[in-house]
Amino acid sequence: MNFVVGILFSGIAMIILILIPWVGVGAFDLRLVFGIIVPYLALATFFVGIVLRVINWARSPVPFRIPTTAGQQWSLPWIKPNRIDNPKGTGGVVVRMIFEVLLFRSLFRNTRLEFRKGPKITYEWEKWLWLAALVFHYSFLVIFLRHFRFFLDPVPAFIHILERLDGFLQMGPLPVSGLGVPEVYITDMLLLLALLYLFLRRLYVHQTRYISLPADYFPLFLLLTLGLTGVLMRYFLRVDLTAVKELAIGLVKFHPKVPEGIGVIFYIHLFMLCTLIAYFPFSKLVHMAGIFLSPTRNLSNNSRFVRHINPWNYPVKVHTYEEYEDEFRDKMIEAGLPVEKMPEKAEEGAGAKEEEEKKE
Amino acid sequence: MSDLPKPEDLAKVKHLPPIWKGWMRTPVEIRSGIYCYGSKPANLEYVGMPNPREWSPVDEDWKLPDNWKQIFLDGLRERLEKFRSLKIFMDICVRCGACADKCHFFIGSGDPRNMPVLRAELLRSIYRKEYTTAGKILGRFAGAREMTYQVLKELWYYFFQCTECRRCSLFCPYGIDTAEITILGRELLNLLGLNTDWISAPVANCYRTGNHLGIQPHAYKDMIDFFVDDIEEITGVRLNPSFNRKGAEILFITPSGDVFADPGTYTCMGYLMLFHYLENLGLDLTWSTFASEGGNFGYFTSHEMAKRLNAKMYAEAKRLGVKWILGGECGHMWRVINQYMDTFNGPADFLEEPVSPITGTKFENAKTTKMVHITEFTADLIKQNKLKLDPSRNDNLVVTFHDSCNPARGMGLLEEPRYIIKNTCNHFYEMPDTTIREQTFCCGSGAGLNAGENMELRMRGGLPRANAVKYVHEKYGVNMMACICAIDRAALPTLMEYWVPEVGITGVHELVGNALILEGEKERKTDLRGEPLPGMEEEEEEENV
Amino acid sequence: MKLEQLLSQKGPGILGKWLNLALETYPSDAHRFLKKQKDRFANPVGTTIEREIKSLYEELLREIDPERVSPILDRIVRIRAVQEFSPSQAVAFIFSLKYLVRRELEKELRENELFDDLPGFEARVDEVGLLAFDIYMKCREKLYEIRAREARAEVSGLLRKAGMIGMVPVWKAGIEKDNGG
Questions:
Q1: Closest approach of B95 to chain A, Cα-based (Å)
Q2: Taking CB atoms and an 8 Å cutoff, what residues of chain B touch A80?
Q3: For the domain C3-156, what is the CATH code?
């Protein structure tokens, strides 16, 4: 699999996915299917899939306590332990996980800037991956939350606040504001930029290009299409938002109905979202759930002072001391090493023992 | 000028661009200098491992059972059910590449399969083919591939090019640990009798004689007695260590490399001197010829084998009736003790919570495992002012410290050895931050790779470490690197000899042995290696004349 | 203008290309890492080659002094001697400099009528290349030597001195050859 085939494969899959709702709604007017049935199916797939996946993971036990320790252990009272990177108890683990999940701490560890050589500033900042990942995930979160205004009536105050913060560029002298275009959300732009960066990086960095699978390009394309259709809808191909909200609230309240007059672009957007959530449990995207179960991160380094139980621990065949002594008894006696059992020839053995005692 | 060769043609190497093929279609050639010899039948037989036979990795035919594929795949399924780590690590990698350039083998060789992510993908591709719907249907397009003979060889080749150092897991946003994948991968290979000689021989030896080197009880004692003679020659003090002694308070277990191979032997002398010094202060300690191995090459074979070899420690402690166990300087030994031992072979309820008989310090962090690391023990002694030390005896040394992978990333033992070094040496310099502590670079020979036949692999794997040593050697004049690992003490001298021949290797307790002022000792002229102490060079020469 | 002047003037451009040639001998997925990662501890191979190839180029502009050139070459060749190269591949990048100079500086060489001076420079490149081969061989010999030494060091010098070797089974022999010790 080289990267061209990988990209082509994902790209073609993507085009087909775009064509499905386009043709379905545009040509056959299957609004019911794409507005109601597919979303419900996708949601069901997502929830069932994720639950099954997590149950499947959880079914396998954690036989050993194998955290990756990234700092000083807790040992002598006068040595300062690193309670987060080498957690001794649950508290430390929680903080470590919060850092990991909210700030992508391990990714941030990427080689530091020190020891820059020579006067040249060509040194590449190693934290771009971390930054892009962070920007992408947080933009996605904000956009996700913003969409709640379609599902909730009345719209909660925090969503208004979020929208206002996100859209503060509107107040600036941006040319777009003059075009009668609604406020530009920063997160829309950041999301697309971050995705674009992640895609280009995958291609540009030889190592990642070499290891990338279609399954790595596909989610990026999917997210890009999702973002682009959203942006198109918002800024250029306006759709009837009241109708969209009607549809959304209908879905949430389980009284689904398909209002008239929503453009095809909306159905494409919705279909991309459905694909994403249905694809989620079966792809690498489950890292979102998996990180919480990762044994090198979510365990404390306490196995020397709190016993960790392996549920499938079983007895094994060992070489006992008795077997050992049986094989080497004579030599041990000769070398003056204490033994458990004296050899048959009682006298000789006793003699050896006495000698040994004398030595001591 | 067109008849001149293009510069590119000349310098380019044929193996160059696999990029158009992708790694799955690029076959692997098992090269000499990189691989270790195959396991010998007698060693597998002795411990009852499967498929004992004569074989060589470069042979076309590896003499596998007919149903090898089934055995491998069943083994994989079983391990997925038993280890959540494996399941998760198979599922959640996003191939972000953060780990790619963190592996010492990749840094030293540029071989793409030495990127941790790709090493794991070797196994992941099989997993996808067998256990995921997408993999079954889409095959290569889903990153899945059939398990074939060629794939098996590839797995073998690359799982024995990983030192289980965990540096990649530090940088992985999901904590994916290649060591875990390698450990389980090797476990699968061992189901088919595909171990290396360098691992299976020590395992068999350890099973039988209690230590990897196969030293029998009388010889073990003789060797220590010999160190006692040597110490007497140097210090004028006669030590009297005891073996297999029932009723002692503490059992001491160290890697057998320390009683057998230089420069570990000097570290061993350091332990002996420390114990002798403490005898008057109330130390009651015994060595054991049965539990005469701290290290555990079983850990490089399978979890089960690790448990079977580790069992000796508690068994011997119980038989001798000691209160707790003190462990010597060793790397993977301490990962096993910290993260596995109690789970494997505990509870050690016949032992007591360790208390230093000299300082009264309770080692609360060893409450259930009941085993204390000697640097924890000694650091405590120094802190409580129990040792008379003369660091100037190490003045000819400019020391740096190599964090061994396992104590660093599988335990967090970072400050204890440093504290000891700083109190026994006057000249100590750290290597750069990105190469020590939790980010430490591997010696390149861990996890059973310190054989002779794979020297090229070891040299390139150790290059990042050697490179940092070279830096402190050039900058501060460092001429000695301390470490707390027996494999390090065996492998690093070789690594240094190739890359930075001016730097030697020492255990931390060799430094202690040199600095420690024993009761009634004569004026020392040499260090434990028999080299003149600082200021004694001339006298030494005179004597030689 | 003299050839050396020209080479010195055009040094940065030639050097960059020469470095690329040397790094392109590594698997393609590693190029960018070797080239871009400038932290000498994170990327010893790339940074060492970059640093030393520069010194080497400077040395090539004057009479070759093996005393000076050898340590420079050593630092590059020592690395390549343990990597996936055949002996010729390990040192070939040196010779490629000749063709690189001819191609890159063709115009300047013609304008300044310096073609006649080239053989002198090229002979120096050859000399360095041959020197590199000597060093390569030395490194390989060293590898065998340390293999042998390590096999010996498995047994402590102290124990050898005490004549105790016979008591110790050899690691590699394992159980097989060690019946009864």
A1: 7
A2: 415
A3: 1.10.490
